[in-house]
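Researcher: I'm preparing a figure for a lab meeting and need a structural model of a single chain. I don't have an experimental structure, so a prediction will have to do for now. The sequence is pasted below. Please return the structure as tokens so I can convert it later.
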Amino acid sequence: MKEKRDEIIILRLTKTEKNRIYEKMFSMGIRSLSAYIRKMALDGYCLNLDLPQLRRMAYLLQNCSNNLNQYAKAANENGRVYAADMEDLRQRLDELIDIGKQILSKLAEL
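Model: Understood. Here is the structure written out token by token.
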């Protein structure tokens, strides 16, 4: 069961400090001040992992999944699988592997 957050900490800030906190929070893509302050206080940092390769990878995974389902359906219906379809799927999977390697290397730099 999730623990209830019912404790309150009051923090006094100058207007400048408050504005800096909000700027950092929004630059990280976080919209909840409570979540941002809690994360920073407990862990000391927030990471913004906006990797365009990850979006590309998700898109390709979805395409491969759809294509694979279509190939399986066609194979079940007529008992054939076309070499061109398999080559297309193999190329997409190779691109996914390359993108995965790029993402891992960027994460290793952190």
